[in-house]
Structure formats: C-alpha cells, structure tokens
Amino acid sequence: MNSEIELPVPLQRCAFFLDLDGTLAALQPRPEQVFIPEKTLSSIHTLTQAGIPVAVVSGRRIDDIDHLVKPLQLPAGGIHGAERRDYSGQMHRLALDADLLTRVGAELGAAIESHPTLYLESKGMAFALHYRQAPELEDEARRIAETLVERYPQQLTLQPGKSVFELKPKGASKGAVIRTFMREAPFDGRVPVFLGDDLTDEAGFEVINEMGGLSIKIGEGSTVAQQRLESVEAVADWLCGLAEQAGNARVEQED
C-alpha cells in the first residue's frame, strides 16, 4: 500500500474530506471509546491555518464529531450527510419525522431484545445496529435492519458498514454531501481529496472520481478508490507530511 501518495495538484489548490472512524481514528469495540490522535488533530489544524479547507464526513452526529476533533470546529457532514454544517457554521438537516423515529426506535429495540450482545445506537435522525461484539449475529442484524427498511421504504435506506447496519434518511449519502460542499466557498474551484475506509465511503469515492479528485481507501477490501493507505497510523503520517508542507509554505510567504 502506498504511503507516498502524491496530490494531483499543489496542496493549496486542494480541499480535504476526511472520514472519522477507521480513518482518522482506530475502530474500537464501542463508538464512545474512539479517539483521534493528537498528531492527527495538529496536522488538520495546520492545514486549516494555511487556508486549506478541511471537512469531516462521517456516520457520526455532528455533535459527536465536534467532541472528537475539539478544540477544532470544522465543516462537517454527519450521519452520512443527513446533517451538514457548512463553512459559515449554518446547519442543514435531512430529518425523519419525529413520530417515525420513535416508532422505528421502539421496533428495533424490541427486535434485539433477545440479543443483548447487539448494540443499538440512536443518532437522533438515524439508527446504527452494531454487531462488532457479536460477529456471529451478522445475519440476524442484517435481517432486523432490512425488515425495518422494507417496512418504511419511502423514509429509510440501509447502509451496511464495518460490523454495523445503519438505517438513515433516504437521500443521505457521503457522495451527496461532498458534492454539496464542492458547490460552496471555500471548497468550490478546488480539487477534492477524500479519505475513507468503509463501504459507507464508496459513494464518496465515486463522486470524487467523477470530479477528477483523489480518492484514498484506508485498509484492505475492494474499492473504487484510486489509492490506498494501510492504516489509521499511515493516515496520521500522511497528513503530518502535508501539514509540514503547508507550514513551510507559510514560512516562505512570511519571509
């Protein structure tokens, strides 16, 4: 896997979109145990200080993204694009009806009652059914999730991921949210670069490829991404190298 990936254009002409779990942060048994290394946060800060747009595009809620990247506050696409905070700080949401959310949550809770090793995460406008601690229940978790989507086909769509099945608002995807960001300043007119590790990131890779950008898959597995980095640690090193490049450019400009 290539740890010396080169950008297609000079750094100052790029815009970066970064997945979180499995890309910026190592996967953990439960979502609340995840953290982003300080080295990675420092590199992202340096890039933004150099005027290079960076957005986080994640399956997590934006509130959770903010907690993990603090003290930074970045443009973000949360819940696979069901919610978005643009560069100016304005929020945009593709929300499900409150009654439907309550009903789906109750039905999912009842469906997994006999499987205590399955973990149901409510994201406010979506749900994630985790089976990381019970891989033998993958088929059962899929059946439960598919049943709910079939019950509400106009409102919900299924998004498989690493040891998780997510039920999200129809129309939400990482590809769609990246495309929206790229229509707005300061992302517009730049070449997009997207790093991700999961099935949920493939829609983003497809959009990046269409736009002539750089798509980078983290880890193993089939993908439409153009390049690969082998691990979260390799991502940290690559971003650190970009940050050093950005820092050197700033020093030269000040001189």
Oligomeric state of shown chains: single chain
> In angstroms, what is the radius of gyration?
18 Å
Structural class: alpha/beta
Uncertain runs: none
Give the overall shape. globular
The side-by-side strand order for the widest beta sheet comes to 5-4-3-2-1-10-11-12
The string of secondary-structure elements, in order, is EHEHEEEHEEHEEHEHEEH
Tally of DSSP β-strands: 12
Percent of residues in helices = 25-40%
State the separation between the terminal residues, measured CA to CA: 37 Å
The largest sheet, given as strand count, sense and whether it forms a barrel, is: 8 strands, mixed
Number of helices: 7
β-strand amount: 15-25%
Description of the structure:
With 255 residues, the protein is α/β, with parallel strands linked by helices. The chain has seven helices and twelve strands. The strands form two sheets. Strands 5-4-3-2-1-10-11-12 form an eight-stranded mixed β-sheet. Strands 6-7-9-8 form a four-stranded antiparallel β-sheet, with helices on one face. Helix 5 (174-181) runs parallel beside helix 6 (202-210). The longest helix is centred in the C-terminal third of the chain and has 23 residues, at 232-254. The mean pLDDT is 94.
